[in-house]
UniProtKB/TrEMBL annotation:
Keyword Protease tagged: yes
EC number: 3.4.21.102
Protein known as: Carboxy terminal-processing peptidase
Keywords: Hydrolase, Protease, Serine protease, Signal
InterPro entries membership: ClpP/crotonase-like_dom_sf (IPR029045), PDZ (IPR001478), PDZ_sf (IPR036034), Peptidase_S41A (IPR004447), Tail-specific_protease (IPR005151), Tail_Prtase_C (IPR020992), TSP_N (IPR040573)
Top-level taxon in the UniProt lineage: Bacteria
PROSITE patterns, A to Z: PDZ
Amino acid sequence: MTLRPALALLIAFTLAGSAPGALAGDATAPAAASTAAPKYATLPLEPTATEADAAQLSARFLTRFHYDAQPLDDAMSARIYKKYLDQLDGEKVFFTQEDLAKFAPLKTRLDDAIWNKDLTGPFAIFNRYVQRAKERMHFALGLLPKGFDFTKDESYIVDREKADWPKNQAELDNLWRERVKNDWLRLKLAGKDDADIRKTLTKRYNTLLDRIKQLDGEDAFQSFMTAYAETTDPHTDYLGPRLAENFDISMKLSLEGIGAVLQARDEYTQIREVVPGGPAAKSGKLHVGDRIVAIGQDNGPMVDVIGWRLDDVVAKIRGKKDTTVRLEILPADAGPDGKHELITLVRKKVVVEEQAAKSKVIDVKDGDVSRKIGVIELPTFYADFAARAKGDPNYKSATRDVAKLLTKLKADGVQGVIVDLRNNGGGSLDEANELTGLFIDKGPVVQVRKADGDVEVEGDDQPGLAWSGPMAVLVNRGTASASEIFSAAIQDYGRGLVIGEPTFGKGTVQNLVDLDRFAQTAGEKPQMGELKMTIAEFFRINGGSTQLKGVTPDIQYPKNGDEKDFGESTYDNALPWTQIPPADYKPVADLKAYLPQLMQMHDARVAKSPAWKLMLDQLAQYKKMRDQTTISLNYDKRLAERKELDKIQADFLARRKAIDGDAVPSNPDSTLDDGLNANERSLKSELKAEKEAKEAKDVELDETAHILFDAIGLIQSNPKLAAEVLPYGGKFSEAVAAAPAKGTAGASPGTKQ
């Protein structure tokens, strides 16, 4: 998705891995790490011949093979121009209208820049962006010694997406005066004195200035090509070499490295997480909070990495399996002048379990009745296609992992299963197809229409089920793409209940094009990156599309308000909703037979639920705050608003404690605005807050388990109803334990979406 917040691009490279940090490992074995320090470019940044070739080659693919192929002409150039400016300065806080007047001649020439392999124009815009960003940081720093007068009745526009660019330097200066004043006021309201505020903001702006200085030509090219790709449709992307490696890791959930998640903090690269089972964890010598100050390869020299950008540090740590890397560490509990430690690690294959499927059992009680409900949490549809192609019997696959979890849940005696797909943005189309096969006997799952109009039906041809009992799929606005295929198929078959919010609405299929394979060069091929290109559209087996509309749940939960800014319908170039004839399929059950009863029971329960009422009130408060586009810069007014907000938050906290007991944040102030940005709090406090968030009561999941609890009760009490709502007339319900588990044979390598 397009980066909208101001300064997002300045720090984007620090997130080029598994959020919130980057994994110190690699999916592909790069060339031997250089011993030289990176030379951060000075302006002007200039495109390379390889980048020019990659741009032209991408254009050839996009204009010939894209699902909705459009010519790269002056009209497309104008759209790229707009997208590029939004990419760089979506909040209109760096460029002025005077800058835009100078850029204007390029508006209809970006197509020529690509076809003629002359990227000086796009790079000129990026260079001006870097120049303006540096100027803004210096301007912000220059305001700090003076302080601010908070008795004036001023206001600041916090959402500038629809605002105009400042007319000139004077307007831009005033905008940044208001911006810095708001930064100061937030810290002041949090109880900090002027000296602490000045210190915090000086550090903040200097850190951002350092990040700006580290932007390089690859960042410029990535930004421009992202703008071009996303102009064709919202889900086509260009992945430069850095992003391509991380995308590969996210798909196969494994890498070769030391098994540590890193993040940039001040001038250091810090250990944010040690991955269980990896070389770092097994050594027992690397700990959360440790800072990496130097890196060496095998017996080579140590290279100081203080002040480096994160991806350059990660590149030093990456390398082939069974090779050695040495890390010079400043321990977490040591001061800046503390004693350094030298750690030697041998790189190995590391499995990234954080994004792998997980399961748990919820015991649901109602009166004297208790039932076990199994939950499978699936963050993404992953598959290690390369490992499968090599014949690796242990290759990672979402379907294989879920099949194993279902076997375990059956052994635990669960009576129903929830597949939690909240915030699952998709992944492998084949995995969505294969995963559906775990819950149906056999039949079509999805229809795929290609650019030429040809429609292929993909489905499950293996008889038998891994789970034939009652099931539900929990979704939200972040449920997209492959997740919508699975949810729609379960709904169309009547196989289970779909519960939650309407989903994202992404009904297109992307494929990866490795541009290096098509490079017209002799000898070693350059690193040109990859093109993630839309090649098809998928349709439900009932003939409808999930495009734009998404999947509408059988039982809907309250929306959180993000649908105005998040989802396929928010893109101005999204494909329209269409439909095709249905596939040849037959629903296996009719959930309408008990859906009204379940909805009635759900409504009655949540009406009396303190936890549900608290969730609704918190959602209402969140919507109220997110709809606020302008805030006062007057201290007294903001203090009154702060006190009112504190009172609301304190009430929320008291209600939550009454519901959950001790399962609430230990520090009540952690729920309030302390005026700090990401990475300005201590790592310990950030990790603690994340842990508490994970352990907090999940009201939606608990209610979904209760709905499934109700469904099981209705089925058990009414044999006629059971024949209608259980799959295949309920005939598999007792034989499921004896049926061979499906999904142990992996999905074929195929389209990634």
